[in-house]
Amino acid sequence: MKIGYLDCFSGISGDMCLGALVDAGVPLAAIEEALRGLPVSGYCLEASPVLRAGIAATRVEVKLDESEHHPHRGLQDVLAIIEEGHLPAEVAERSAAVFRNLAEAEARVHRTDVESVHFHEVGAVDAICDIVGTVVGIHELGLDTVKFSTVALGGGTVRAAHGVLPVPAPATVELLRGIPSVGGPVDFELTTPTGAAILKTLGEPSAHWPQMSVEAVGYGAGARDIEALPNALRLVVGTPAGRGETDSDYVWVLETNLDDMTGEEVSYCTGKLMAAGALDVFTVPIQMKKNRPGILLTVLCPPDLLAEMEGIVWKHTSTLGVRRSLWQRAKLRRQSRPVRTPWGEVRLKIAYLGDRIVRCEPEYEDCKALAEANNLSLREVYRSARAAANQTT
Length: 393
Description:
Structural class: alpha+beta
Distance between the termini: 21 Å
Low-confidence stretches: none
Strand content: 25-35%
């Protein structure tokens, strides 16, 4: 397993990502070759060694041919470019996901629908190169997971297609919902919407430097060289230290006490939370002040869904407050694999401790569907799926 850690002490942007990847060992030619497959022209990539506050870094720029017209593009235009680019499937999917997140953020800011969003500078050739090139670089390094630090945002104002905007830009704020960030330490834009979208889509926050053995380090330079701090994004590449038998990530834990809702109302809320992507939702009977019986509602969710989960709790419960905390969790590595039964396919949920299989269970919904379709007991389908699993694992 290989980890990439983005140290965003000076923010993050698309060109900083490209510079950090190239500085960490990704050949610029590999990124250029992948981008040449896209139906986009009128640009070239240029990499140069620079110093940022005395630290050696790589500056990668997308140089545009000013004589060629570069139109604004909508989401479907960008997705079509990616789809036609003959990219590896994983690269194409993840690049498209970054742009979808950008479109959703812009739509919320401008109170419009996603399909009506025109990206302006975000949809320009340089941003397409930054985003697709970054995903290509991550693919080239073979990173299994990307983690990132608290994100420095900068301050002041920035001029954009819609005029002068506060820093962080509104789209950046939308993209960083649920992600640890901090303003400053300088009064200009450190984190761009493109950089924020890359973090939201491809990475997960890490409260501390991951436990790993460092193999490579790269610094991607921002445009300015300033005295206050090195204006660069640091990418650290390594492998998990120690035995590395489990994975880890971060989840938000939301809690609230309820004492004036019916069981049906609580059930309706928990259903909404699960449908929206909560990792788990559960209730515990509690005794509240004045000996009133109540319910403790607990929600586990990934960092990027924090705002959505809280919104559902506000809308569908009577609570006046929600407690929240960010927890690190260890988890077994998981894999899904289909097996054949006499009545059809069933997915297996396989869990590993290191390289050893410690859990192997048929997927309930698959077994339920086959049992209902063939007038069988659930136990009979489970038994057949487990027998098939024993022959393949």
